[in-house]
Amino acid sequence: MPDVYPINDYGPIMPGLVMGMVAIVHVFLAQFAVGGGILLCYFQWLKMTGRDANAGRFVDGYFKVLVLISFVMGALTGVAIWFTAIQISAGTIGSMVLNFHWLWATEWTFFCLEIAAGYSFYRYHARLSDRTSLWLLAIYAFAAWMSLFLINGILSWQLTPGNWLKTESVADGFFNPSFWPSLLFRTVVSVTLAALAACVVINLMKIDREAKARLIHRASLLLVPMLSMPLLGVWFLAVMPADSRGWVLGESPAMMLFLNISIAASLLIGAYAIVGLVIKNLYINGATATLLLLLAFGATAGGEFVREGARKPFSIRQVLYSNSIRPEDVARLREVGCLADDPYPLKTDIEFPNLQVRDGAKVFRRQCAVCHTVEGTNGVTHLTNTWDADQMRMNIAKLQKTKPFMPPFAGTADELESLVQFLRWSHDDRPEEWKLSDDPATLDRIQVWLDEAGTKPGNFKQYEELAGVGD
Ligand code: HEC
To answer: In terms of residue numbers, what domain contains 448?
Structure first.
């Protein structure tokens, strides 16, 4: 028996979007923290070697910003991720914990080390020697980067589990095909964010313009690694599964749009940074620096959206669909139904006209709600506006053929009909009275469509190994 957990209802915002928004903010802050550590080591070294008279003041000022943002906001959003994930995809987060618990525990110890080193620096560095301060910063930077190293392995496993599918070995899952391109890419993004934030902080310092310009030129050297981004991006695309790459490169207009936003924003930052700051040694004022940082946020958001979206219909490729149903359970759920093991009442005060419509709402919650709302973002009633009842029945019965980034329908013909009735009732503004749909011929037609669709995912021919998934 699979464990079933209900998905939370956020009104007009689809749960997947809530998850994405929390994750994007957290990733942005966490990557800033990683890059910030590296940047501070560099400036502490500039101070110690006497290369820049203001490097010490910069380290003090920047560290305060970093502490506030990475400790406070980073930790808060980190907890928010767990809190959101268990409300939206308990199955996914559960599987990530189950398969990699030692890695999570290791990550946590590095986080503790990061906090301890950072706090010691914050509290005592005025009294410590420069050398000891540098050590603390180096430990801070190393621990922060190690957190990235560890989480990156688990996140990239979701998209490219690779050999893990056969061996289930932690090492195979962790060092999966997209591990290195994604780690290197994220490291470059981290130092880029740190350098852009440095330009904002330097502008806020009370030193003359000449001195600011010198510091900015130093900080902008950390933007040079951006030059490797196109190469790393292509590497990442190359190791991506073919169907996911297809979504990103055009088959899904939304995903391609976000990829392009991300690339365009990065190009703008890169061009300004390399040409303006590094080569021409130009000055950058606070407003422009903030704008570039906002662009970087846009690039991060676009990139994370694409990375999350490209996994569809899976949250863990070939292991778990986005709606937390396992591929190998679909055939069984076609027989016994998806409501049999879902004991949770609906979180709504809507008066349903009959039990069939209420069951439809539960089928919707179990199978569709993670990616759709009824009438809000990606609302199914809007998407099916022009369809008649039979069109709806057929397209939902063949969900994975309708759009291969959706999982196959995992319930009985009865349940599918209740879903259709729920959607039509919602579309008609939820009247008090609604006729029960119990024509056996309708159910027979649905059954034929379900059988034609089969229980495999839409793109199953592209999967290397699909243990347990079949008709
Ligand atoms: C993994 C996420 C995901 C799941 C789960 C999912 N969908 Fe979708 N669905 C999508 C996306 C993304 C689209 C594309 C929306 C667009 O084109 O704007 C879509 C499109 C649709 C469409 C329009 C298809 C067309 O040809 O225009 C319908 C209808 C639909 N979904 C119904 C459902 C129903 C019913 C369920 C549950 C049984 C479901 N979906 C489950 C992601 C999902």
So the answer is: 333-462
